[in-house]
Amino acid sequence: MIRRILLSLALLAPLPVQAENLANKLFGAMEAPSGQDPMPIGSYARGCAAGLMELPESGPSWQAMRLSRDRNYGQPVMIQYLLDLSAFAQKLGWAGLYIGDISQPRGGPMTSGHASHQIGLDADIWMLPPKRLNLTAKEREDISSIPVRSADQLSVTGNWTKNHQRLLKAAASDPRVDRIFVAASVKIEMCKTAKAADTKWLQKIRPVAGHDTHFHVRLKCPKGAKLCQTQAPTVAELSKDGNGCDDTLMWWVTDYLNPPKATKKPKKPQPAEEREKTPREFTMADLPQQCAGVLSAE
Ligand SMILES: [Zn+2]
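Above: inputs. Below: predicted complex with zinc ion.
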């Protein structure tokens, strides 16, 4: 009798997900891109990627950093964008660009770090201006980028230069770009120094916490990429079709840093089954169904 009760209880309870069945473990174990046609599948923070290309570890105008992470894979449009932007960096007098994480070989949720970077259309670019492009694999693990945001988050540091401004303007003005994430103080500085007649491109520069040593480029869904989910709201909507140099930006250096005292009691933390899952909790059932095919493809 007791066994029957235990058995029926076991059938009622949801099956615990084995760690090795989590989507980030499955995608994190993939060593090469799928041999499929390129396709971003799903959204930047809930998806996967077919047919990614590897950014060569070194090239005439770039080096990929932290090679041990194996995250130097992107959609072909992203790889081309990085080649183009790094060539522009050389025109500024930099040796090129140091490129941080793009995506895993088949995209998908990651075992550590980012919530996004899942569909091959996000890339982190270091704020450290490269002086040389012959770093060894070990140096690429050991060297750190530089902070361009002050510790109190209110301003940029002496590491911020006119060339950073020029690079970010070029990066954002590219029609392939959907938005670029930077520390709020970086955008505030760019708002101050941009010429008044020409600031529309600034709407693509978006303030986000973190991002003090790198900027994060997010490309639009490529034309015809039917499985790629466009991000909403758009940057035009977020900035009411302006440049975003407004109160919503200043919030990052006022209320965000010194929140007004809460009048309501803080909510109890929600149990896992009631709140939205984080990407590290995703199972394959949380991803678009095509992602199973990306995992199993040759
Ligand atoms: Zn990023």
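The pocket of zinc ion is lined by residues 114, 117, 122, 124, 216 (CB under 6 Å).
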